[in-house]
Write a structure and sequence with these properties.
Layout: H1 5-15, H2 19-31, E1 33-35, H3 36-43, H4 47-60, E2 63-66, E3 72-75, H5 78-102, H6 107-117, E4 129-133, H7 135-147, E5 152-158, H8 159-164, H9 166-174, E6 182-188, H10 191-201, E7 205-207, E8 214-217, E9 221-225, E10 235-240, H11 242-254, E11 257-258
Parallel strand pairs: 5-6, 6-7
Antiparallel strand pairs: 1-3, 2-3, 4-10, 5-8, 7-11, 8-9, 9-10
Length: 259
């Protein structure tokens, strides 16, 4: 069997296997049941390594050892392998989340806070600026800003961006003390769609013609996108500047229209 090198490369990435494991698994799949010697011949993997590789694949759930002599191996269906990997990934993620959640209760966390708050040269508020790259970094920052709001959450963005980040935004606003924190969403989009969203979700929604994507909290902190589209390659700038934040919020709010 001639193994397509491009297929080997793609399967390696999908299933997190090394080159030998991938070639052996593909060879086993092509036969269904085979001995180590047959697999070595088909895959091109040295026979001396094939036994170790098959043992590794068996432990990972890609193969099963057939009872009897000579020893042969049975390929596990790809869909079963995928389901096992999904369950394993989910369990690993849950354990990771549990560990991170309990981290705040440890002395290590207190030391981290102490380092941040009492560095050798304390950071001046007006000097805090940063660049966030990628959706996985931007969404948590939006959620953090919204959840920590004390007086106001002001968001001016496009309908596409608002729907894309809606879950993070609403999770944050649910934890706010609505009697103390004002929320205002100014969105650029079709009037009818905005009206339906406002009615269905009971949001303090207004319309704008601006294409800016800006998140302002307490008129002190600003997170604004500097790339035009949603996606993994998004880039945002975060800064803490009451003067800039309040001025920008006033300009954007002045352009807003009631629905």
């Amino acid at each position: 069997m001639m193994v397509d090198n491009q297929l080997v490369k793609r399967i390696r990435q999908h299933f997190r296997l090394n080159e030998y494991e991938t070639k052996v698994w593909l060879a086993l799949l092509s036969r269904g049941i085979a001995s180590a010697g047959e697999i070595a011949t088909i895959s091109g993997v040295p026979r001396s390594r094939t036994y170790d590789v098959l043992e590794s694949l068996e432990k990972s759930g890609f193969a099963i050892t057939k009872i009897g002599k000579p020893v042969k191996y049975i390929a596990v269906k790809p869909e079963e392998v995928i389901e096992k990997m999904k369950m394993s990934a989910l369990q690993e993620a849950q354990e990771r989340v549990k560990m991170l959640s309990s981290l705040k209760e440890t002395s290590d966390y207190l030391e981290l806070l102490n380092l941040y708050k009492n560095g050798i040269e304390p950071v001046k508020t007006h000097e805090i600026t940063g660049t966030l790259k990628g959706r996985s970094n931007i969404l948590p920052k939006i959620r953090e800003l919204v959840q920590n709001a004390k007086r106001e959450v002001f968001i001016c963005t496009t309908l596409e961006d608002f729907e894309d980040k809606l879950r993070s935004i609403l999770i944050g606003t649910k934890e706010l003390d609505k009697s103390k924190v004002r929320t205002c969403f100014v969105v650029n989009g079709p009037v009818e769609r905005l009206k339906k969203m406002k009615f269905k979700m009971k949001l303090p929604l207004m319309r704008t013609t601006q294409n800016a994507r800006v998140y302002i909290v307490d008129r002190e902190e600003v997170l604004f996108m500097i790339t035009p589209q949603n996606g993994a390659e998004e880039v945002a700038i975060w800064l803490r500047s009451p003067y800039f934040a309040s001025s920008l919020a006033a300009l954007l709010e002045a352009n807003a229209q009631k629905l």
